[in-house]
Amino acid sequence: MNRSAQLPERARGRPADTDQQDLRKQILDTAEVMFAENGYAATSIRHIADRSGVNPALVHYYFGQKKGLLQSVLERAVEPLGNAIAGMKNASGAAPESIAGLLVAMAAAHPNMPRLLLREVILPGGEMQQYFVDNWAPRLGGALPALLDREKAAGRMRADSDPAVAALLLIAISIFPFVARSLAEPVLGIRYDEPGIEVLKQQITQLLRQGMTR
Q1: Which pTM value belongs to this model?
Q2: Phi first, then psi: what are they for 213, rounded to 5°?
Protein backbone atom coordinates (compact mmCIF):
# COMPACT_ATOMS: atom_id res chain seq x y z
CA MET A 1 0.00 0.00 0.00
CA ASN A 2 1.44 3.39 -0.90
CA ARG A 3 2.00 6.20 1.57
CA SER A 4 -0.84 8.43 0.43
CA ALA A 5 -3.27 5.55 0.80
CA GLN A 6 -2.22 5.09 4.43
CA LEU A 7 -2.66 8.71 5.48
CA PRO A 8 -6.47 8.86 5.64
CA GLU A 9 -6.41 6.01 8.17
CA ARG A 10 -4.04 7.97 10.42
CA ALA A 11 -6.02 11.17 9.92
CA ARG A 12 -9.12 9.65 11.56
CA GLY A 13 -7.51 10.01 14.98
CA ARG A 14 -4.96 12.38 16.37
CA PRO A 15 -1.56 11.70 14.77
CA ALA A 16 1.32 10.81 17.02
CA ASP A 17 3.33 13.83 18.16
CA THR A 18 6.37 12.98 16.05
CA ASP A 19 4.26 12.30 12.98
CA GLN A 20 2.29 15.48 13.57
CA GLN A 21 5.42 17.63 13.71
CA ASP A 22 6.91 16.01 10.61
CA LEU A 23 3.72 16.25 8.58
CA ARG A 24 3.09 19.87 9.55
CA LYS A 25 6.61 20.79 8.48
CA GLN A 26 6.22 18.85 5.24
CA ILE A 27 2.99 20.67 4.41
CA LEU A 28 4.38 24.08 5.38
CA ASP A 29 7.53 23.53 3.32
CA THR A 30 5.47 22.58 0.27
CA ALA A 31 3.00 25.42 0.73
CA GLU A 32 5.82 27.95 1.04
CA VAL A 33 7.26 26.84 -2.29
CA MET A 34 3.94 26.67 -4.12
CA PHE A 35 2.58 29.98 -2.83
CA ALA A 36 5.85 31.64 -3.85
CA GLU A 37 5.96 29.98 -7.27
CA ASN A 38 2.31 30.23 -8.30
CA GLY A 39 0.70 32.76 -5.96
CA TYR A 40 -2.05 32.24 -3.42
CA ALA A 41 -4.97 32.45 -5.85
CA ALA A 42 -3.57 29.83 -8.22
CA THR A 43 -2.64 27.34 -5.49
CA SER A 44 -5.27 25.08 -3.98
CA ILE A 45 -5.22 22.93 -0.88
CA ARG A 46 -5.44 19.90 -3.17
CA HIS A 47 -2.36 21.03 -5.13
CA ILE A 48 -0.40 21.38 -1.91
CA ALA A 49 -1.66 18.07 -0.56
CA ASP A 50 -0.82 16.22 -3.77
CA ARG A 51 2.70 17.63 -3.87
CA SER A 52 3.15 16.87 -0.16
CA GLY A 53 1.91 13.31 -0.63
CA VAL A 54 -0.89 13.67 1.92
CA ASN A 55 -4.68 13.71 1.93
CA PRO A 56 -6.28 17.20 1.59
CA ALA A 57 -8.28 16.44 4.74
CA LEU A 58 -5.02 16.34 6.68
CA VAL A 59 -4.11 19.86 5.51
CA HIS A 60 -7.50 21.10 6.72
CA TYR A 61 -7.00 19.20 9.99
CA TYR A 62 -3.81 21.10 10.76
CA PHE A 63 -4.46 24.53 9.24
CA GLY A 64 -8.16 24.97 8.51
CA GLN A 65 -8.83 26.81 5.25
CA LYS A 66 -6.22 27.89 2.71
CA LYS A 67 -5.79 31.35 4.21
CA GLY A 68 -4.97 29.77 7.56
CA LEU A 69 -2.25 27.75 5.85
CA LEU A 70 -0.77 30.86 4.23
CA GLN A 71 -0.87 32.64 7.58
CA SER A 72 0.97 29.72 9.21
CA VAL A 73 3.60 29.75 6.45
CA LEU A 74 4.27 33.44 7.04
CA GLU A 75 4.27 33.19 10.82
CA ARG A 76 6.74 30.32 10.83
CA ALA A 77 9.30 32.49 9.06
CA VAL A 78 8.66 35.94 10.51
CA GLU A 79 7.91 35.15 14.16
CA PRO A 80 11.54 34.29 15.06
CA LEU A 81 12.64 37.41 13.19
CA GLY A 82 10.14 39.55 15.07
CA ASN A 83 11.28 38.10 18.39
CA ALA A 84 14.93 38.78 17.55
CA ILE A 85 14.21 42.38 16.56
CA ALA A 86 12.15 42.87 19.74
CA GLY A 87 15.12 41.57 21.72
CA MET A 88 17.28 44.31 20.28
CA LYS A 89 15.16 46.89 22.09
CA ASN A 90 16.63 45.68 25.37
CA ALA A 91 20.16 45.21 24.04
CA SER A 92 22.90 47.79 24.25
CA GLY A 93 23.02 48.25 20.49
CA ALA A 94 21.33 47.38 17.21
CA ALA A 95 23.99 47.81 14.57
CA PRO A 96 22.66 47.95 11.00
CA GLU A 97 24.83 44.98 10.03
CA SER A 98 23.32 42.94 12.89
CA ILE A 99 19.81 43.75 11.69
CA ALA A 100 20.82 42.85 8.14
CA GLY A 101 22.22 39.57 9.45
CA LEU A 102 18.85 38.67 10.94
CA LEU A 103 17.06 39.44 7.68
CA VAL A 104 19.53 37.44 5.60
CA ALA A 105 19.32 34.53 8.04
CA MET A 106 15.53 34.45 7.71
CA ALA A 107 15.73 34.51 3.91
CA ALA A 108 18.42 31.82 3.87
CA ALA A 109 16.35 29.56 6.13
CA HIS A 110 13.20 30.19 4.06
CA PRO A 111 14.51 30.95 0.55
CA ASN A 112 11.03 31.14 -0.98
CA MET A 113 9.73 33.57 1.62
CA PRO A 114 11.03 36.78 -0.03
CA ARG A 115 9.14 35.97 -3.24
CA LEU A 116 6.06 35.02 -1.26
CA LEU A 117 6.21 38.28 0.68
CA LEU A 118 6.57 40.19 -2.58
CA ARG A 119 3.51 38.48 -4.06
CA GLU A 120 1.17 38.40 -1.11
CA VAL A 121 2.30 41.27 1.13
CA ILE A 122 4.23 43.95 -0.74
CA LEU A 123 2.53 44.22 -4.14
CA PRO A 124 -0.93 45.84 -4.33
CA GLY A 125 -3.76 43.40 -3.81
CA GLY A 126 -1.64 40.90 -1.90
CA GLU A 127 -3.75 38.37 0.00
CA MET A 128 -1.95 38.95 3.30
CA GLN A 129 -1.12 42.64 2.98
CA GLN A 130 -3.63 43.95 5.52
CA TYR A 131 -3.00 41.07 7.91
CA PHE A 132 0.73 41.76 7.73
CA VAL A 133 0.25 45.50 8.28
CA ASP A 134 -1.97 44.88 11.30
CA ASN A 135 -0.02 42.06 12.93
CA TRP A 136 3.60 41.97 11.79
CA ALA A 137 4.71 45.28 10.29
CA PRO A 138 5.01 47.02 13.69
CA ARG A 139 7.25 44.20 14.98
CA LEU A 140 9.41 43.96 11.88
CA GLY A 141 10.15 46.94 9.62
CA GLY A 142 8.09 49.25 11.78
CA ALA A 143 10.39 48.65 14.75
CA LEU A 144 13.59 49.38 12.86
CA PRO A 145 13.48 53.22 12.63
CA ALA A 146 13.41 53.55 16.43
CA LEU A 147 16.34 51.14 16.80
CA LEU A 148 18.34 52.98 14.15
CA ASP A 149 17.46 56.35 15.65
CA ARG A 150 18.94 55.09 18.92
CA GLU A 151 22.10 54.09 17.06
CA LYS A 152 22.25 57.56 15.52
CA ALA A 153 21.76 59.27 18.90
CA ALA A 154 24.60 57.17 20.32
CA GLY A 155 26.88 58.34 17.54
CA ARG A 156 27.18 54.94 15.91
CA MET A 157 25.44 56.00 12.71
CA ARG A 158 26.04 58.91 10.41
CA ALA A 159 24.54 62.14 11.69
CA ASP A 160 22.91 62.84 8.32
CA SER A 161 21.16 59.45 8.12
CA ASP A 162 17.38 59.20 8.14
CA PRO A 163 16.36 56.21 10.32
CA ALA A 164 13.20 55.44 8.33
CA VAL A 165 15.00 55.52 4.98
CA ALA A 166 17.87 53.55 6.49
CA ALA A 167 15.37 50.88 7.64
CA LEU A 168 13.94 50.60 4.14
CA LEU A 169 17.40 50.28 2.60
CA LEU A 170 18.37 47.64 5.15
CA ILE A 171 15.36 45.55 4.20
CA ALA A 172 16.03 46.04 0.50
CA ILE A 173 19.72 45.18 0.56
CA SER A 174 19.10 42.08 2.70
CA ILE A 175 15.99 40.65 1.06
CA PHE A 176 16.21 41.62 -2.62
CA PRO A 177 19.10 39.23 -3.41
CA PHE A 178 16.72 36.36 -2.58
CA VAL A 179 13.86 37.82 -4.61
CA ALA A 180 16.24 38.03 -7.58
CA ARG A 181 17.72 34.57 -7.12
CA SER A 182 16.27 33.12 -10.34
CA LEU A 183 18.36 35.63 -12.30
CA ALA A 184 21.21 36.32 -9.90
CA GLU A 185 22.25 32.69 -9.78
CA PRO A 186 22.58 31.94 -13.53
CA VAL A 187 23.36 35.47 -14.79
CA LEU A 188 25.62 36.86 -12.06
CA GLY A 189 26.94 33.55 -10.79
CA ILE A 190 25.91 34.29 -7.20
CA ARG A 191 25.89 31.21 -4.99
CA TYR A 192 23.13 30.57 -2.50
CA ASP A 193 24.75 27.71 -0.63
CA GLU A 194 26.19 28.27 2.85
CA PRO A 195 29.54 29.74 1.67
CA GLY A 196 27.71 31.96 -0.83
CA ILE A 197 25.36 33.29 1.85
CA GLU A 198 28.38 34.06 4.02
CA VAL A 199 29.93 36.09 1.19
CA LEU A 200 26.64 37.95 0.77
CA LYS A 201 26.55 38.82 4.47
CA GLN A 202 30.16 40.01 4.38
CA GLN A 203 29.48 42.26 1.39
CA ILE A 204 26.36 43.72 3.00
CA THR A 205 28.28 44.37 6.22
CA GLN A 206 31.04 46.10 4.28
CA LEU A 207 28.58 48.34 2.45
CA LEU A 208 26.74 49.28 5.63
CA ARG A 209 29.89 50.05 7.57
CA GLN A 210 31.21 52.26 4.81
CA GLY A 211 27.97 54.04 3.97
CA MET A 212 25.76 54.05 7.06
CA THR A 213 27.69 53.58 10.29
CA ARG A 214 30.52 55.50 11.90
Answers
A1: 0.85
A2: -100, 175
Decide: residue 89, CB within 10 A, 0-12 exposed, 13-18 middle, 19+ buried.
exposed
Q: Which residues of 37-58 are buried (b: 16+ CB within 10 A; e: fewer)?
A: eeebeebebeebbebbebbbeb
From first to last of its 214 residues, the chain has per-residue pLDDT tens of: 333 333 333 444 445 565 788 899 999 999 999 999 999 999 999 999 999 999 999 999 999 999 999 999 999 999 999 999 999 988 888 999 999 999 999 999 999 999 999 999 999 999 999 999 998 988 888 899 999 999 999 999 999 999 999 999 999 999 999 999 999 999 999 999 999 999 999 999 999 988 887 6
How far apart are the C-alpha atoms of 19 and 137, rounded to whole Å? 33
Largest CA distance in the chain: 68
How many helices (H) and strands (E) the chain has is answered by 12, 0
Cβ atoms of 73 and 149 closer than 8 Å: no
